Amino acid sequence: MAVQGARRAAGENRLGDAHAYAGRPVIFNIGEVLAQLTEDFPSVTASKIRFYEEKGLVTPQRTAAGYRQFTESDVERLRFVLALQRDHYLPLKVIRDYLDSIDRGEGPENLPPGVSASIAPRPVNPELAAEMAGRARRLSVEQLRVESGASNELLESLLSFGLIAAEAGHFDDHALRVAKACAALAAHGLEPRHLRPFQAAAEREFGLVERVVSPLASRRDGASQARAAESAREISDLCLSLHSALVQGHIARMDS
């Protein structure tokens, strides 16, 4: 298997000429990236690309409004990742090691036969380094309070109701997201005791997802474990979409 290094001609003709004329790099939104990848990788989705971003495999720039902007290099990295998963069933940790080696300017060792590492290394800059470091942050309770905007009293309540939890005295980014959401909801009069059903619902949803992916998760090999985690995330995203649609339907009927 050779990792494809050329973009689809249609996307190149439609977008490349306009940007090249202005002397700027070609920029794609996530929909345009999907259009380039789906022919070779029909299972690729926006949620999968966001998952790869979360894992640090691709790092698109963001506009002031928060929209992702992908370069040609980002698309090639995605092709590299998708091909290694599809054709060699490699876990993301191994693929991440390959990409880190490429970014350091080294030739990755032990690549599967026929796989080319001829993709551009990721540019190194202070903003990117800070972003990558932030993905693995361990937050103290004070950092959690400052970054979430939650009061000490609110954080204590979130801990007591099990909405957030510390590991070795530190919190992860998931706890930060929960604390931010709960701080905003507190402004509407919703206290942690009102939010316990969300924790119960999350546990039930996880139980459902876990049952679906258990045949893969029960296997010992890393590739199966990686595919189980990826499937779990996709199913969870679909469950969240269903939940949002059902709630928004009830809200819409309030105005009817």
Automatic annotation (TrEMBL):
<dbReference type="InterPro" id="IPR047057">
    <property type="entry name" value="MerR_fam"/>
</dbReference>
<dbReference type="InterPro" id="IPR009061">
    <property type="entry name" value="DNA-bd_dom_put_sf"/>
</dbReference>
<feature type="domain" description="HTH merR-type">
    <location>
        <begin position="44"/>
        <end position="101"/>
    </location>
</feature>
<dbReference type="InterPro" id="IPR000551">
    <property type="entry name" value="MerR-type_HTH_dom"/>
</dbReference>
<dbReference type="GO" id="GO:0003677">
    <property type="term" value="F:DNA binding"/>
</dbReference>
<dbReference type="Pfam" id="PF13411">
    <property type="entry name" value="MerR_1"/>
</dbReference>
<protein>
    <submittedName>
        <fullName>DNA-binding transcriptional MerR regulator</fullName>
    </submittedName>
</protein>
<keyword id="KW-0238">DNA-binding</keyword>
